[in-house]
Structures are given as C-alpha cells and as structure tokens.
Amino acid sequence: MANISNAQSSLNYRWPKLLAWLRTKGMKTGADDLLVECKETPTAGNGLFARISCTPSSLLFAVPPQALMNIRTLKSLYPTSRPTPLTAVQMISLHLYINRPHGGEDSPDPHYGPYISTLPREFDSHPLTWIVRSKSGMESGGAPLLGYLPPSVHASLVKLHDRFCQDWAAIRAYLTANSYICSKYDAYLDNIDNSISNYVWAWLNVNTRCIYYRLKASKEDPDNLTLCPILDFANHTSNGLHMTPAPSEADIWDSAPVNLIGKGFRFLSPADVSVQEGKEIFLAYGAHPNRTLFVEYGFVNKSLGEVGITDGEVDVQNVVESLILDHKSGVFVQSVLEDEGYWGDWTLYCSAESAQPSWRLITALRLHCLFVSNNTIHHNAIQPWRDVIAGKREMISDGNELAWKESLITICNTIITKAQASLKSDGTEDCGHGWLPWMRENIRTLWREELLVAAAVKQRTLSGDNF
Fold it and tell me: Which class for 132: exposed (0-12), middle (13-18), buried (19 or more C-beta within 10 A)?
C-alpha cells in the first residue's frame, strides 16, 4: 500500500467528522446534495474537487446559517453590551483563539470543534507571522525576508500589522474585563509569547478565510462577514473554474436579513461551463494586485513572464512622497492634496492592453509640477489645477503636461532601478528548506511585477501616449 501523507491522513479523519457535525446543523450531505469533496493537492494543501460532473450553475452545496461562524451566531457566547464591544473580526478571532487545537488534537470547542479542527494548524509562511514574531523577539524563519520586500509591499504589511495590533489590544481588554471568560483561559494570558502566537493563528484564519455575508442593514458594514465550513477548503484562482455564492434575499433586497443569522449560503458551479468529475473548483478572492494577495493571504498569482505581462499594479507612495516633499513647496502641496482628497493611493497599472498611471497620481503630479515651475506659493496659483479636477478644463498648460510626464518617467526609473538590483541579488540564497524557497520566489514575483509595470508605463509615456 502506498504511504499516506500526514495531511491526507488528517483529512481522511476530519472530513467525515466535519460532515457529521454539519448534519447536526441541518446541512444535507447526501450524494445529490454535496457535489464537492476535499482532497490534498500537490502544491496548495487541500482543495475542493467535483465529486461528479456538474452542468453550469449546478448547486454544489448549501451551508445552513447555524453552521456559519459570525458575529450573530457567536453573540450569545460573547456578550458585547459592556464593557468592551467587539467587531466581527475580533469576536470570530477571539473564539478561534481560545479554542485553538493543540498539536494534532481536535479543537475542544463544544460549538464548532469539528469545523475548527479542519482549519490550518499554522501560518508560519505568512508575512504577518514574520513581523509579529520579529517585533516580539521570537524566532521566525521568514523574518530575514522582511528586508527584501518591495517598499510598497512592506508598507502594506505594516498597515496590516497595525490592524492586527488594534484587534489584539481589543481582545486582551475584553478578556481582562470579562473575568468569567478570562478565568477559563488564564494560560493564554500568562505567557505572552504563546498568547500572541495563538492570536496570530486565530486572526489569520479570519483574515484569509472570511467571506462577505450580509447581516446588517448597511451592505458596507464591516461586520458583514463569516467563516463558512467546506468553502474555505477552496483555493484561489484568478482565471480558473470558480464557484460563486448565490445571492441571498438580503443581497437582492438590499436589506438586513429577516432572520437575524440569515439563511446561509448556496454555492453554484461556474455559469458558463460544465465541470468534469475530479476537477478542482476554486474561489476567486477578487481582482487584487499581487501586493494585496501577498500581504493579506500570503501568496501571489502565477509568476509573470520575463517579457509579457498580465494585469499588474504598483503602489508608488514612497517614491512620490519623496519627490513632492523634497521640494520647498512640498508641505503646501501635501496640505492641498489632503484637503482635496488626493494625497496617497498613487499607483501604476498595466495589463495586456494598456499601461498607465492612476488618475490620483496624475492629479498629484500636476499640482507638484505647477509649483516647481512657480516661484510663489499661494492658493490663487492652484485655481487652474482645481479647474482640471472639476472638469472645467483638460489641462493646466502644455508645459505642465510635459513636466508631470517627465516626473512620471523619473518615478518609473526609480522603481526599475530598485527592482533590477533586487532581482540580481535578493539576499535570500540561503532560504533552501520547507516553504522558504516558494516564498523567496513569491518575493521575486513582486519585484518582477514592479519592474515590468514601471517599464511598460515608462514606454507609453516616452511614446507620447495620452492617459
């Protein structure tokens, strides 16, 4: 008999237990009701595969609301009336935090134990783990890689770490204030190293696995999210076969669900193609640049080729900030851009059809160049710029157009130079075991994307194309 991997052995044990638990929540798991199964994949851990051939828009499976983990289904376990209310992310991560399985054991949670036991056991390869452990003085195999990230990626990671720290502070405050919960889990608060490591695991399960689920009156409410059994076995794809959730009544009528916990999820196979038996079915996380996928989820899309390019995006915040603030008018320009809502979020885009700077970047560069060419700094001088953003005129002047495009070329050159230097020697040659070589290649993909996007935008600018 062939050897069975530890992951496959664990899956063979926990998948039936998960289905048995789901049946107690009212889910139908018969041959005609559950058209997917979880299997180990060669490169991406577990995945969801079609048990039988499925016609377009087939109902793959339906998860009842009682089996979902969200702010409504957990509310009775964690009262939030006083003293410290919790957000959905905080409440779900708190529940995972105090019910994390130890080693290879099952979760002790009497409510969601069989589901929690199927979640990933660690996130050592996720960059948030590296930065948390590094700042806490703990060892992390990925910590040396932090110094080789593109500046824009590192800045996004720092923002993610800030979000994590805010939630961690809220959790500790809640547990300290609610002694009846705290007393049951003193071990989690006694050892800060183990405590924060457990919370990183819990928080990343929420951040990488929660899906939008309408629970509140406003569709933009950040608490409209949930963990969903079975679904989170699905891997991401940017262009492969992917399932979609059927719209709920709350989505259709744009209102909070009549039932406080909603009506659950129904997931459909692709609408335009049949799925053959044994084919993997994916979930599309959305149209995110590799920077976002890396920081939020810990992976990137397939490597870009050396010549061709797929959709790419580069955040140029650090380069443009330096360009603006190094000039004597920089502080004033920053204040104007902040007042008008144009400070930051500056990007370069590239696809197979086009390459261009974002409108926000063009707008910022136009104002910067207006003052570079003007010796006086006063509000009256910016009226032509205001007219452009108001749509009253196409541009400030021919000279201003030439100037901001020259600045754009300078920005592209800066990015190209940094990327080329990093790709020649990324400093990670010793990363040769476990997930480290894979992550090293992910980082190279991030730099490659910056290089190719910047080069494509530069080429279009030099060609005199209008944006």
Answer: buried
- DSSP code per residue over 130-169: HHHHHHTT---TTGGGGGGS-HHHHHHHHHHHHHHHHHHH
Could you tell me if 57 and 247 are in contact, meaning their C-beta atoms sit under 8 angstroms apart?
A: no
Helical residues (DSSP H) of 216-315, grouped into ranges? 249-253, 290-292
Beta-carbon contacts of residue 218 (< 8 Å; ≥ 6 apart): none
pLDDT in tens, 124-183: 999 999 999 999 888 888 899 999 999 999 999 999 999 999 999 999 988 888 877 766
Q: At what angle do helices 317-325 and 330-340 cross, to 10 degrees?
A: 130
Which pLDDT score is estimated for 2? 34
Cis ω for the linkage preceding 83 (within 30 of 0) = yes
pTM of the full predicted structure?
A: 0.90
- Is-contact 58 272, C-beta < 8 A? no
> Edge-to-edge strands of the sheet including 46-50?
36-40, 46-50, 280-283, 242-245, 265-268, 59-63
Q: Are 403 and 369 in contact (CB under 8 A)?
A: yes
> What burial letters (b/e) apply to 295-306, b meaning 16+ CB within 10 Å?
bbbbbbbeebee
What is each CA distance from 292 to 96, 202, 299, in whole angstroms? 24, 20, 9
Mean residue pLDDT across the chain: 89
Q: Would you say 229 and 277 are in contact if contact means Cβ atoms under 8 Å apart?
A: no
Q: Using 50, 70 and 90 to split pLDDT, how confident is the model at 242? A: confident
74/86 Cα distance (integer angstroms): 11
